[in-house]
Amino acid sequence: MSLSSVHGTLSSLKTCQTDIGTGMDTITDVALDLVETQGNSHVLSMEAMILECAKLDREINNFVDVMKQATSEISTQNLESMVNLSTKAKELFRDRMSRLSDADLQNHPKVVAFKDNIQNSSSQGNQNAEENSDEMDDEITVTQTQVNLTCPLTKMVNPVKNKKCSHNYDQEAILSLITNKQKQKKTCCCPVVGCANSDVRQMDLVPDQVLRRMIQSQKRQGTKT
User: Fold this and answer.
1) What are the phi and psi torsion angles at 146 (to 5°)?
2) d(CA 27, CA 49)
3) Which of 109, 121, 108 is nearest to 42 (CA)?
4) How many CB atoms lie within 10 A of CB 36?
5) Element (H, E) at 161
6) What number is the average pLDDT over the span 10-22?
7) Distance of alpha carbon 26 from the chain centroid
8) Where in this chain does the record put each SP-RING-type domain (predicted)?
């Protein structure tokens, strides 16, 4: 084994993390489907699934960090140094994982997004149920159009929600704005007019799959008409 093979393995693990993230988004989508059709009866089991994915994602993150730390201290690629690398990495990984708590998984961005989306979907469902009992379908349509499906920057394609101010943006557009501001050594203000949030950060953004589904539904309705 050589350092180059170690780096290759770490690169593969990072690719796996992308697949894990996609899987977590799929779990959220399935959970939203279940909430819409069957209520909240399956939410806990879906939450358990997404927490398992978050745990695996966290383990990969920590393993990659540990390996980077260990390999940075290796100056040669002889057999003895590689054996020492393996031993040191295992010790560092065990020590780091022993200090982690499953409660920390609740702060994983995808877990936070899952809970926000489920809560928003449930709230939307309750609101629609109340409206259905008092108003006709055309009144409901008017109410639904009040939801802001647009991005203050560009066309809304992949919506994310800011945990600080609760405003929505297209993911690519807001990340581009944040990057440009960082290059200028400035903070990124929320682009929504009148918002007081003067420091939009990538860590504050979570996928808004409820809004994405609403946008997709609106597109399907537009296609039918």
Assistant:
1) -75, -15
2) 8
3) 121
4) 13
5) strand 159-162
6) 86
7) 11
8) 136-220
Which CB contacts under 8 angstroms, 24+ apart, belong to 195-199? Answer: 195/165, 195/167, 196/165, 197/162, 197/164, 197/165, 197/167
Helical (H) or strand (E) element with 205: strand 205-207
Task: Report the pLDDT value the prediction gives residue 209, as an integer from 0 to 100.
Answer: 85
Ramachandran region of residue 185, left (φ > 0), alpha (ψ -120 to 50) or beta?
Answer: left
Task: List residues bridging with 205 in a β-sheet.
Answer: 162
pTM given for the model: 0.64
Question: Are the C-beta atoms of 141 and 217 separated by less than 8 Å?
Answer: no
- Residue 219: its pLDDT value, please? 75
Q: Are 74 and 58 contacting, i.e. CB atoms less than 8 angstroms apart?
A: no
Interatomic CA distance for residues 33 and 11, integer angstroms: 34
Looking up tokens 């609760």 gives: 166
CB neighbourhood size of 86 (10 A) = 12
How much is the pLDDT for 141? 38
Whether 165 contacts 199, CB under 8 Å: no
Please compute the mean of the pLDDT values over residues 163-182 and round it to a whole number: 91
